[in-house]
Design a protein that fits this description.
Elements: E1 20-26, E2 29-36, H1 41-49, E3 52-59, E4 62-69, E5 75-79, E6 101-108, E7 113-121, H2 124-139, H3 144-157, H4 160-166, E8 169-172
Parallel strand pairs: 2-6
Antiparallel strand pairs: 1-2, 3-4, 3-8, 4-5, 6-7
């Protein structure tokens, strides 16, 4: 991956961007992407400097990373280890001592430029539970069809606020 910088292209090879929030864990670590069309200054500022909160909701084999930055509403991003390319898959270490680093990137989908960047950590208890959940996922294959079925079911029954209410653990960024 090339060096990321605000105002520079995130990935010049991508011309169409999916809107929304996307979480990924692979051999390069934990990443959260906010893909907004023409993000406002308030949205950029919330990502770069707002208080960060995280929650974890697990539904069957799917992990939902819940996240809130500054004045933005709670968002969620489903994750399935089996959707990561085989070459990039990595099983995380489970420990009471690790504070996993999360890299957050906001991309303006109208331009493909990086609009905001931030790096922060999860608390050790949150990291432990997230890594346990990813490790568990790696032991139980869940292909694309099952992933889509579960995510569609969850989104058909619950709002993001409902998921926040059902989360099993929370932390603030930087803990």
């Amino acid at each position: 991956m090339h060096l990321l910088a605000v105002g520079q292209p995130y990935d010049p090879s991508i011309s169409k961007w999916p809107q929304g929030c996307h979480y990924n864990y692979d051999s390069s670590g934990h990443w959260l992407h906010y893909l907004f069309r023409n993000p406002t200054e308030a949205e950029r500022s919330s990502i770069q400097a707002g208080e960060a909160q995280f929650g974890l909701y697990i539904h069957g084999p799917i992990i939902f990373l819940l996240h809130k930055f500054g004045d933005l509403l709670w968002n969620d991003a489903p994750y399935n280890w089996w959707r990561v390319s085989h070459e990039s898959r990595e099983i995380p270490e489970v420990s009471d001592e690790i504070h996993a680093l999360l890299k957050v990137v906001m991309v303006d989908t109208a331009t493909g430029l990086v609009a905001a960047l931030r790096a922060l950590t999860f608390s050790a208890p949150f990291t432990r539970r997230l890594h346990e959940a990813i490790r568990s996922q790696s032991e139980h294959p869940a292909g694309q069809a099952l992933h889509d079925e579960i995510v569609n079911d969850v989104y058909g029954r619950y709002t993001t606020e409902d998921l926040v209410g059902m989360a099993e653990i929370f932390c603030k960024g930087g803990e």
